[in-house]
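ok here's the first one, seq then struct tokens
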Amino acid sequence: QVQLVESGGGLVHPGGSLTLSCAASGSIFSINVMGWYRQAPGKQRVLVAAINSGGSTSYVDSGKGRFTISRDNAKNTVYLQMNSLQPEDTAVYYCNAAIQSSRVRGIFTEYWGQGSQVTVSS
């Protein structure tokens, strides 16, 4: 079994910072792309940032210049550093990873974290 466990969400004032973490565990052979998505109330889940196994990153416009995605391959963990947070960043943030299980080689399966609430409010 593979699971992703998130931590680091919470309440922050506008202009503040938060760092989310997501650790993958279980029967893992390799991890390809890892990413962060968010879902605001009444809206669809959307991509925020992604990073591949080589460290190449991509960001959607809403996070460019404010969010930084990184990963520690030795710990199977992905991070999202969020700076200059604004009320419109309020959402549930989900990590996502394409993982090749050590029990089933050659197939990458998509896994999701449990979600972390991030609330930006004064």
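and now the second one, same deal
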Amino acid sequence: QVQLVESGGGLVQPGGSLRLSCAASGTDFSINTLAWYRQVPGRERELVALSGTDGRTGYPDSVKGRFFISRDNANNRVYLQMNALKPEDTGVYYCNSKYLISGPAPEIEEHWGQGTQVTVSS
């Protein structure tokens, strides 16, 4: 059974930094696309960082240059370094993994963590 567990959220002042961690069990991170999403009440969950199995990363313009995703495949961990935080970065941050199961009927195996709250406020 795959489990993702996030940690590292909390309250931080505008301009501050936080590092989120996600630890996985029951899967091999090296074959998963990994991502961080955030959600605020009343809005859809949005992607904030993506790490492909080929090492490439991607970010939306809203966080580009401030957020950085990294992965430690040997220890099944993924991190999100968040710098120059803004009040609009407030939300629940979720770790996500996706793995393509190939075959006659390919399907995506996807898993989510329980989320960790990040609050940016003075």
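notes on #2: The chain has a mean pLDDT of 95. The two ends are 40 Å apart (CA to CA).
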